[in-house]
Amino acid sequence: MEVRTLLLQQWASCLDQEDWFPPLEKVLEDITFEQAIWKPVEGAHSIWELVCHLLFFEKRILLRFLGETKNEPQAENNEATYRLPTETSQNWQKTKQEYFYVHRELEKILATSELEDLYREIPKDNPLMIELKSLAMHDAYHIGQIVFLSKMQGAWAAKRSF
After folding, report:
1. What is the pLDDT of residues 67-112, one digit of tens each?
2. CATH 1.10.1370.30 matches 3-144
3. Domain extents for the chain?
4. Going by fewer Cβ within 10 Å, which terminus of the chain is more open, N or C?
């Protein structure tokens, strides 16, 4: 099996394909604004903050691959990658949609680019193939946190397909 096929499967399982863990699109489907900003204790991250964190890194890799490094998101440290926009229901919806869009754009690049392009080093990082492998594992880790936060709020019914 080709590495691209494996990565495409792994990448899809993070967004919209049921696998060993629920995909983020399904997890966030019914999360309300109130649930998105809720924190179990001071110092913990909210669901929305976790989605912002995931979006930060995916958007950065997408823009680096496209050669648009001057537009990539910046953060003074890792904690800053969790920063929220103005807390409104509309901005919560926008954050989700932007995350889904960026994730799908990276998937399209993975599916359609020549292998040489996927293996070329992108500015400041490894080749895109390596970055997408790492991002998929990073996403899976944080998806687990998001599911746990939604369970703590009673927002997670038996949504699994098995």
Report:
1. 998 899 999 999 999 999 999 999 999 999 999 999 999 999 999 9
2. no
3. 3-144
4. C
